[in-house]
Amino acid sequence: MRVPLTDALIREAIANISFEGDLIRYEPYGSGHINDTFAVYFGLKGKTHRYILQRINTDIFKDADRLMENIGGVTAYLKKEIIARGGDYTRETLNVVPTIDGKPYYRDSADGCWRGYLFIEDATTFDTVKDPKDFYNAARAFGKFQNLLASYPAETLHETIPQFHDTAKRYRDFEAAVAADKMGRAKDVEAEIAFVRAREADTHVLVDMLASGELPLKVTHNDTKLNNVMIDDATGEGISVIDLDTVMPGLSLYDFGDSIRFGASTAAEDEKDLDKVWMDINLYEIYLKGFLETVGDGLTANERKMLPMGAKLMTLECGMRFLADYLEGDVYFRLHYPEQNLDRCRTQFKLVADMERQWAEMAALVEKY
Q: Is residue 65 a contact partner of residue 72, using CB atoms and an 8 Å limit?
């Protein structure tokens, strides 16, 4: 259990990371809910510049060594590839600032784990898709991320959250929640349970293709929301993918699929009126186009063919997790009102059904691009 933050702990961490210059101030930064994040201001040679300081949430990421080994390996590889292609590694990837004794993170006197990053200036993140261009540029950023890491030995990465997107396992977990029915709620969600069971065969498709070698193991980000892309203030282009805590070995289709699940929906994740919920095929096309433009030869033919399945399975998986949590008494996902998990699962299932309705067009658009 992490101890409460204090000014003394923050300053202890700052003093033990190799930031350059004289400390001016620090302040909370960003809208993330997992780690404690600060912008730290330093003066150097008459100018002010910033770094990012984060206390890692070790309640979620319990092995800081493996977490930072993943991040260090991936960012070093990205830096090398970006330099080879004539890019600016200080803006196009995260750069870890080591501790004063050369380590990737600092463990403070209260056992908290802290890391520093170079601050990516003149760029912004957005929490929601306000302009389709932002979704397109995020797609290009995630496609480039896949392309840059296409040859990275994904099997050397640690699973910071084991079997995170093993959809067949998620289905087994769902069935266990139905069988246990701890809260006596199963009788009220028979239609939702039947919806999942009718698609049980789908949950095996991608993991079976991985096991048979039909799909390659890749470096996956696993949190491909719009707000994990830095958008250049001047050009509007997506310049860097951030928040690499969930970088793990997996399938490229997971990242593509979760982007569509999140970004191509026409409604909030907990929308009660399901008539407002569908997959916007135009947003799907915008993202698909941007992603394929930059991923280049970073995808195999099978990966390209299965992109629609990635979108469907990530959405189905998320819905299963919401429903299982509802059946278990809402113990995992944070709630803002009773039955929010039920609303969440229903929106995901509506999106799955709408993807199935538009399946032929989704597949045709892959062929088009």
A: no
Residue entry with tokens 């092995």: 63
49 forms beta bridges with 42
Burial readout 339-362 (b: 16 or more C-beta within 10 A, e: otherwise)? ebbbbbbbbbbbbbbbbeebeeeb
pLDDT less than 70: residues of the chain = none
Q: What is the total residue count of the chain?
A: 369
* pTM assigned to the model: 0.92
**CB-based contact 104:98 (threshold 8 Å):** yes
Report how far Cα 367 is from the mean position of its chain's Cα atoms. Answer: 26
Task: Please give the pLDDT value at position 127.
Answer: 80
Q: Give residue 294's identity as a one-letter amino acid code.
A: T
- Is residue 40 classed as helix, strand or coil in its secondary structure? strand
CB neighbours of 178 closer than 8 A, spacing ≥ 6? 186, 193, 324, 327
* Residue 200 contacts residue 349 (beta carbons within 8 Å): no
Q: Which two tokens stand for residue 209?
A: 């293709």
Taking only the tens place, the pLDDT of each residue in 142-175 is 999 999 999 999 999 999 888 888 999 999 999 9
Using DSSP's 3-state secondary structure scheme, residue 96 falls into strand
How far is 97 from 108, CA to CA, in rounded Å?
16
pLDDT of residue 30: 86
Does residue 93 contact residue 79 with C-beta atoms inside 8 Å? yes
Q: Is the separation of the CB atoms in 36 and 54 below 8 Å? A: yes
